[in-house]
Amino acid sequence: MAHIIAHPGGRFRLPLLDMGRRLLSRAGGDCPLCGARVAGARLCPGCQADILAAPPGAGARCPRCALRLQAGGSACAACLARPRAFCRTVAAFDYAPPADTLILMLKTQLRLSMAPVLARLMADALMADVLRAEVLRAEGAHALSPPGLLLVPVPASRASLRQRGMNPASEIARSLAVELALPPPRHLLTRRRDTPRQATLDRRARQQGTAGLFVCPHPLLGRHVAVVDDVMTTGSTADAAAAALLAAGAASVTVLVAARTP
Ligand SMILES: [Zn+2]
Ligand SMILES: [Zn+2]
Predict the structure, then answer these.
(1) What is the chain's mean pLDDT, rounded?
(2) How many Å lie between the centroid of ligand 1 and the Cα of residue 96?
(3) Ligand 2 geometric centre to CA of 61 (Å)
């Protein structure tokens, strides 16, 4: 069953799998960080408060790319210097200890049970963002409405699919669809080519390396799309995904990530 859940193309989707995912997310378990008994696929309240807390001195997030703004202001320097194809990013937590352990459990230890834990944190962050946007709507803020949102995971490279046998972004997106009561995610993006491992590239090389990385061969006719990924580092992968989705006719592209590199 595991390899069916992990199928990168999602072609073997069965209602049963979603039902299983729903049951798993509600069943009792242990907090993945401290081992305390918890109800459902989640962290204990203490660990959750720890990972959601802003680092000392850190400010609000850049609304476009979710980077922590150290010096205040309405957007980060990178977003001000270079427009992004996506209009907003919602990140559940910063990619820093101890929260990075949750991502590594999924990506390195291949613990698929981390997907619903991350998805729940992301759903909470999204709902908080929607509430904030509704409060700010009078000021013209972009409001994201989960009903009708199309979830699209960032496709994994062929090399990492071979290595892991699954795409962490797809796993998170499937659990997120269950959390938000949305239809199953759609695998609409195709990689045009495989790039060198992102972790070995500097910021500029990443941006150049990801331009035109994806293509969306399906017309999106005004749909509001949310790109789902595990971690956002520079935003260049999400930018390439958003550019492909906008080129296919999406009305807007938001990015939902579990973690943002501070
Ligand atoms: Zn805990
Ligand atoms: Zn930004």
Answers:
(1) 84
(2) 16
(3) 8
Residue (of 151, 142, 144) closest to 225 by Cα position: 151
- The tens digit of pLDDT for each residue in 4-39 reads 333 333 334 445 556 666 665 556 688 999 999 998
* CA 5 – CA 7 distance, rounded (Å): 6
Q: Which residues contact 151 (CB under 8 A, 6 or more apart)?
A: 173, 176, 177, 180, 182, 184, 185, 186, 225, 226, 228, 256
Beta bridge partners of 190: 215
Q: Which of 86, 67, 127 is nearest to 227 (CA)?
A: 86
CA of 100 to the centre of ligand 1 (A): 14
Whether the CB-CB separation of 24 and 116 falls below 8 Å is answered with yes
> Residue 103 above 80 pLDDT?
yes
Give the model confidence (pLDDT) of 52-100 as tens digits.
988 777 788 999 999 998 777 889 999 999 889 999 999 999 999 989 9
Confidence band, pLDDT 50/70/90 cuts, at residue 48: very high
Can you name the residues that pair with 214 across neighbouring β-strands? 191
Q: Is the pLDDT of residue 212 over 90?
A: no
Q: What is the secondary structure of 87-151 as a DSSP string?
A: SEEEEEEES-TTTHHHHHHHHTS--TTHHHHHHHHHHHHHHHHHHHHHHHGGGTPPP--STTPEE
Centroid of ligand 1 to alpha carbon of 177 (angstroms)? 25
With the CA atoms of 86, 168, 233 and 149 taken in that order, what torsion angle do they form, in degrees rounded to the nearest 10?
20
User: CA 248 from chain center: how many Å?
Assistant: 20
